[in-house]
């Protein structure tokens, strides 16, 4: 890590997502700093390990790790891979770690996450959304299993960029970082539309993996659950349409086929539930359901899934 | 049991339902004979025990118990309390235990159970449906826990009764048996309508108790699951209406209030699932969903519940 180049990158929330992309960027020569909490000691001692089915085993050691945000250098890019459920608590840390005019990229699922964080950040910061198409999970402190894929699609949300050209330049800079690190990345014009598109996969699979205690392979092997997933995907597409986002024709069908050919995968919500962490129900269910309903469209199966998950989440918490 | 009176009664399937009503009838002086399988030895040795929150502890010993239907005397009434999933296997036993012109009462939940059994029985037998409004479960071999309620509503399905008056007489005879045993009972004109009405409770609570691993108290304490149950009840009412059965106004609301004031209850499907027995998905979900759909009405939440339960049932079986 002696030949750092380009912008300084901070990783806020070094779980599976932050760990994977942080290690990829650091290996590509970027100057990457990791803010950690519970895993700090393990990462300082053992480094960060990514067991990647795509890139082979990757090891980063030593790691520029921090327990205290006040000790981090000011970063030009901040990649937030933490759970959406902790965004409110993270906002002051993000602001503190940011260099003037820094870009904050929320690498999270769901809808409305940038809207919720925006009022908690200084106006001088750019806020962007990053949609991560990746199968990855945290296996142990400082150890990440990367099972498949990895692309990050980037879109601008809000901030000091004066016009479309300025926004585009910021987005392209983000895309360029990932591509330089060997990670596929595409600039997206419309963040909300991109988030809806990702929800077509996340809304059915995340929740059903919890409710039916099953990975994708089991869910796709059963005719009934497969039909249910397809019906739910169509509901997401209808919800997006009600909100003014025409998603690509045949998207649900393509996702079904792709998932059928994927190795068995347990979505992040499955791990959150089993490890008794709060599930990301607000961003992944409540926000899109409310947005669709505000536009006159109820999504009964997804609402039922949300109600069932909320029941389980409350029991986990209590 | 030396002073037996009236018709001879056979109990086919001495689980919670058959055990409870059989003991109540035998205690009232009826000549009751029990066909048993796995619990035969325990019942011959220890008798039948009903721990009733309504009637106190009830004990029947000795029990007129049979492992082999060929040894049973011919019965005038046959009460079938077994799971709907075993009806096909039970049909020949029912026929064998029946006296000429006997009455067969299916004390089961769901829709279409009589239609399915009818072709497997001799035309000379009367077939009736009995809707049991009771909270009861099998606690151990020969031991039944009776938690609340107990009424049986009786309706005629098919058989040699020549006209409405003859059908009514058979139904009234059944109602009379239960009343003589201290069990509430009402004659119902329309079996299908009575079955739909009972489904308003059974479809939401049975399935959700399995899916959310919760009794009624937990399901009613959470605003989300309560709203979901209400939405599902309304779907059953819509399904019934599509099939030509206008259920009583305000039925769902009354059931919600009644369940809220009930002691915590785990429906039979919960026990079936936990003990890895097949769930009664065909009678309680597939049949009413198909009937509603055949009349142009889809019930999305109940269909989703059925799909989810079918997934769990298949995993339990495999």
Automatic annotation (TrEMBL), chains A, B:
GO CC, alphabetical: cytoplasm
Domain Ketopantoate reductase N-terminal residues, every copy: 9-158
Pathway: Cofactor biosynthesis; (R)-pantothenate biosynthesis; (R)-pantoate from 3-methyl-2-oxobutanoate: step 2/2
GO molecular function, one term: 2-dehydropantoate 2-reductase activity
Keywords: NADP, Oxidoreductase, Pantothenate biosynthesis
One GO process term, biological-process aspect: pantothenate biosynthetic process
Domain of life per record: Bacteria
Record EC number: 1.1.1.169
Keyword Oxidoreductase: yes
Catalysed reactions, as listed in the record: (R)-pantoate + NADP(+) = 2-dehydropantoate + NADPH + H(+)
Residue ranges constituting the Ketopantoate reductase C-terminal domain according to the UniProt record: 190-310
Gene3D superfamilies: N-(1-d-carboxylethyl)-l-norvaline Dehydrogenase, domain 2, NAD(P)-binding Rossmann-like Domain
A Pfam cross-reference name: ApbA_C
Similarity comment text for this entry: Belongs to the ketopantoate reductase family.
Alphabetized NCBIfam families for the sequence: apbA_panE, PRK06249.1
Its biological purpose: Catalyzes the NADPH-dependent reduction of ketopantoate into pantoic acid.
Name of protein: 2-dehydropantoate 2-reductase
Species name: Pseudomonas mangrovi
């Amino acid at each position: 890590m002696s030949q750092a180049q380009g912008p300084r990158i901070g990783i806020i929330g070094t779980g599976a997502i932050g760990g994977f992309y942080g290690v990829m960027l650091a290996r590509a020569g970027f100057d990457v700093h990791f803010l950690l909490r519970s895993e700090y000691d393990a990462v300082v001692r053992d480094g960060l390990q990514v067991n990647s089915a795509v890139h082979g085993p990757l090891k980063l050691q030593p790691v520029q790790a921090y327990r205290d945000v006040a000790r981090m250098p000011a970063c030009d890019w901040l990649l937030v891979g933490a759970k959406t459920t902790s965004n409110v608590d993270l906002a002051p840390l993000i602001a503190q770690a940011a260099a003037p005019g820094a870009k904050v990229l929320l690498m999270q699922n769901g809808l409305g996450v940038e809207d919720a964080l925006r009022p908690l950040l200084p106006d001088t910061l750019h806020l962007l959304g990053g949609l991560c198409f990746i199968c990855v999970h945290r296996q142990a402190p400082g150890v990440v299993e990367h099972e498949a894929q990895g692309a990050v699609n980037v879109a601008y949300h809000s901030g000091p960029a004066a016009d479309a050209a300025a926004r585009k330049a910021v987005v392209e800079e983000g895309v360029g970082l990932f591509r330089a690190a060997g990670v596929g990345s595409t600039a997206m014009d419309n963040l909300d539309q991109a988030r809806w598109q990702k929800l077509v996969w996340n809304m059915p699979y995340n929740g059903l993996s919890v409710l039916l205690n099953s990975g994708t392979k089991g869910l796709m092997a059963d005719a009934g659950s497969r039909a249910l997933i397809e019906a739910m995907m169509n509901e997401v597409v209808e919800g997006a349409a009600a909100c003014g986002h025409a998603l690509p024709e045949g998207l649900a069908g393509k996702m079904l086929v792709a998932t059928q050919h994927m190795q068995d995968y347990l979505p992040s919500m499955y791990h959150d539930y089993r490890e008794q962490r709060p599930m990301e129900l607000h961003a992944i269910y409540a926000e899109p359901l409310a947005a669709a309903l505000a536009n006159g469209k109820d999504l009964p199966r997804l609402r039922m899934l949300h109600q069932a998950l909320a029941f389980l989440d409350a029991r986990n918490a209590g």
